[in-house]
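We now fix the convention by which a protein and its fold are recorded. These numbers are not coordinates but entries in a learned vocabulary of local backbone shapes. A record is reproduced here so that you can trace the correspondence yourselves:
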Amino acid sequence: MPDTRRRRAVCAAAAAVVAAPAAIAPPGAWIGAVVAVAAMATAILRRPLGPVAPVLAAGLVAGLSLVTDAVHPGPRGLVMLWLPVEFAAMLVLAGRVIRRAPVRQAALVGSALALALMVLPLRFILLLPQAVLVPSVVADAMAMFPVACAVGVGLYLRGQDNQRARAVQRARREQWLDVGRDLHDFVAHELTGILLEVQAAQVSAYDEEENSELLSRLEAAGLRALDSMDHTLQTLRDPEAPALAEPPPTKVHGLADLPEMVDRFLASGTAGGSLELEPGLAGTAPRAIQDAAYRVVLEALTNVRRHAPSAGRLEVEVVRVPGPALRVTVTDSGRQGGLGGPGGLPARRPGGGGTGLAGLSERIGALGGDLSAGPHARGWRVRGVLPLRLDRRGRG
């Protein structure tokens, strides 16, 4: 609101100065002052005609200028008094319309303004006692250069605006993909565990103590899933948040969280296993690397629950390798006792897989690492290699 008042005050003061000579001019000369003030007001004010769109107001100024060129009676001295003001204001309007208006309106109104600017010098030339072709051509040639500059600047700024809009769109798409990966990584992991727990309880009867432990595990898994959903909703409420080279603290998981996750996984099933975590890695690896390593293990455990719930053995290894790099390996022994899960649990249907590994591979590749997954012995192995150092761009 203060900016609008300031613009109106500036416009009123400038209009008073520009229109002042019309008070002592013949009535026929007033039209030049009116057109100059109208062009200047349209260039200064955001909505000079109230509800009328600024692009339409600029088009009306171009039409008014062309009509004035055709009917202006003179005198020529007063034409030169207001012509530069009108010319400068329409240059501003041409650049602004070409930059900001929709394509069709920019083409139509921008062309009208360019035409009005090109013929504007003729308003003075045609009033000369002996109008000849040469001064007209020279005047139009001189007017062509600033008009071309205004059009060029408008097109250049329009291109820059489009590039920024595309960059924002790409960043927003990446953010949505990150949200989708988070949902897959954390919520799907917990929901898969809950599903398998419930299926196992349906197959074999639990005593009262086992039921109590089961309900406690289901409650804890549900709360973790809700926490992940809360973080996702928080991200969606702030879509303009800038992208970070490293995940913000609220979504980072580190190597120190691996023992708890692996223990929780082993406790919720029949598989045995172990975690080999090299001491000191949690304190030396960057946060983004630790978070990616955590996600490798999380994705591998989720796939074990889905595809091989009856696996008898699980090995998780997180060690430092030459590079320097961090190598994360998760190996399972494969399904035991046929295609079904423990106690007759159904195996996951073919073709029911998600895109977790593909998304994780993109995430690790963006950090300068590598992810591989495939058969190993009778089971499956997921291995990620991540750099232990990152440059300013967040790559190894």
